[in-house]
Design goal:
22% strand; alpha/beta; 502 residues; six-stranded antiparallel beta barrel
């Protein structure tokens, strides 16, 4: 994936110096074995590095400072093998700026009933030490994930992996940049927002560029370079005859290839990992970019249309979370419904820009009129989406905070759509269409979304915890009355949690 930085996670084992050197050597050896076991499991997306056993306040402060200052440290995992007096941790945790996971486990899964004595009890007392640690975490209002279970269990490793993926996405946001060609689509509310507030809260900045700057960069590519990119299309997709090398509309395909080359170069040269444009500002472009966003999203870039800069940010985050899985994640929009009783579903699509990573089968490359924007007919990839469980997520600006809304859905089979000239997905919403749509609207969810087959609600919960943003999940258990009350409660909580700065 483009722009993905190397990352690892530190494992810190807590104890105290009073146990003496022999016991502490055993504690350290056991902790190293836990780290090796986690790495050898094959279930974690990124490596775990043993950062040491800490027994005194200065050691804890030192390791927390070093973790905070290491750009390759994505977060820390803490475990109290024995008792570790929690006042020792206060200064270090106050200085820690990285996400934290508290692993509540113990070295052995079983108890040696026949031989169990006080020496064993003193060495293997994570039940004691982790409660002490958990108390100070809660007293300090420390945002963290708690994972309980033996470290060899697949479920425990999977929960650590989910947190790692969320922490990686948060790390990717820090210092990340979104390129905005033109401005917001005029008079649209949900695509607007506080870009300064977003950079303060989320760490990701938004830069505005004139479309003319993009046009100038496109012009720098030679005809040979454009032809070479078009040849890639010939190999990768099934082309309409009009777009084939000898086709009557090959020039439109070449223009789309030049757009892709120009946008790709512009983004990479500027260090951008996400971008947006709007069909109301296409000065100097012959057609609305459709193919370019589709193919660039497949590289890992976030994207949204209409000047919407928040959706590219969350698409980039979901693509990072899902890296190494199927990679199926796209810009999406709930476009229209089937409201027949018992057959309720959503047809999701957009004007052009649906990512081919979610395609079922080989996409076709087609050209059709757009009917909006007043430009030439744009080239695009057309396909049906794969089937299966997915999540549809929206990031919105509530004025005093950011809210992440996620609906669990199931992508389903559907009749042929021979006259629909865009890529699409059809899904059933959980728990049902009426409840899901009402909850989405009560929560203020946008029409633009990030649609992923890899990301789970657990990953989103971990991400929201790390980012310090509100999360509203709509799933099988959602009931409108309770959901509305949760939204009311959240207004109070987030007002006080964010304080006067918001």
């Amino acid at each position: 994936m483009y722009g993905l930085k190397p990352l690892k996670f530190w494992f810190i084992c807590g104890s105290q110096h009073l146990y003496g050197p022999e016991t502490l050597e055993q504690v350290s050896a056991n902790a190293r074995e836990v780290v090796a076991g986690l790495n050898d499991s094959g279930r974690l997306v990124l490596p775990v590095e043993f950062a040491g056993m800490v027994t005194r306040p200065n050691e804890i402060t030192d390791v927390c400072q070093r973790a905070s200052n290491d750009p390759e440290c994505g977060g820390v995992i803490v475990w109290m093998h024995t008792f570790s007096p929690a006042k020792m941790w206060i200064r270090g945790l106050n200085l820690l700026t990285k996400p934290i996971l508290h692993l509540h486990t113990q070295y052995r899964a079983d108890l040696p009933w026949d031989s169990l004595d006080m020496d064993y009890m003193n060495l293997h007392q994570a039940a004691h030490g982790d409660r002490e640690g958990g108390h100070i975490h809660t007293r300090m209002r420390l945002a963290r994930k708690v994972v309980v279970g033996h470290w060899k269990e697949a479920d425990v490793q999977d929960r650590i992996d989910a947190w790692m993926r969320a922490a990686r996405a948060w790390n990717d946001w820090q210092g990340g940049r979104i390129c905005r060609f033109g401005d917001n689509m005029r008079d649209v509310a949900v695509t607007e927002g506080d870009k300064v507030g977003a950079e303060m809260a989320l760490g990701m900045g938004v830069d505005g560029w004139a479309v003319g700057d993009l046009v100038a960069r496109m012009a720098q590519f030679s005809d040979a370079e454009v032809e070479a990119r078009a040849a890639e299309y010939d190999e990768a997709y099934t082309l309409m005859p009009e777009l084939a090398p000898s086709g009557a509309r090959r020039d439109s395909l070449l223009d789309a290839a030049r757009q892709e080359l120009g946008i790709e170069a512009f983004l990479k040269e500027g260090g951008y990992t996400a971008f947006t444009h709007t069909f109301q500002d296409l000065h100097g472009l012959n057609q609305l970019p459709g193919l370019a966003p589709q193919r660039l999203m497949a590289q890992g870039f976030g994207f949204s249309g209409e000047g919407d800069w928040k959706t590219p940010a969350i698409i980039r985050a979901l693509k990072v979370m899902g890296h190494g899985l199927t990679g199926a994640c796209s810009f999406m929009e709930d476009y229209t419904y089937n409201m027949v009783d018992g057959q309720e579903c959503v047809l999701g699509s957009h004007m052009l820009e649906v990512c081919p990573t979610i395609a079922e089968g080989k996409p076709t490359m087609e050209i059709h009129p757009l009917g909006i924007g007043g430009k030439a007919d744009p080239v695009r990839l057309v396909f049906n989406s794969r089937k299966g469980r997915a999540v549809n997520a929206s990031l919105i600006d509530m004025g005093n905070r950011f809210r992440l809304i996620a609906n669990v859905v199931e992508s389903i089979d559907h009749p042929d759509l021979p006259k629909l000239p865009v890529a699409r997905a059809v899904w059933e919403t959980k728990p049902d269409l009426k409840t899901a749509c009402a909850a989405w609207i009560y929560a203020g969810g946008a029409h633009h979304t990030a649609y992923s087959y890899d990301v789970t609600t657990e990953m989103l919960e971990d991400f929201a915890e790390i980012a310090g943003i509100e999360l509203c999940v709509i799933d099988e258990d959602t009931e409108i009355g309770a959901f509305k009350q949760t939204l009311r409660n959240n207004e109070i909580y987030w007002h006080f949690a964010k304080g006067i700065r918001a």
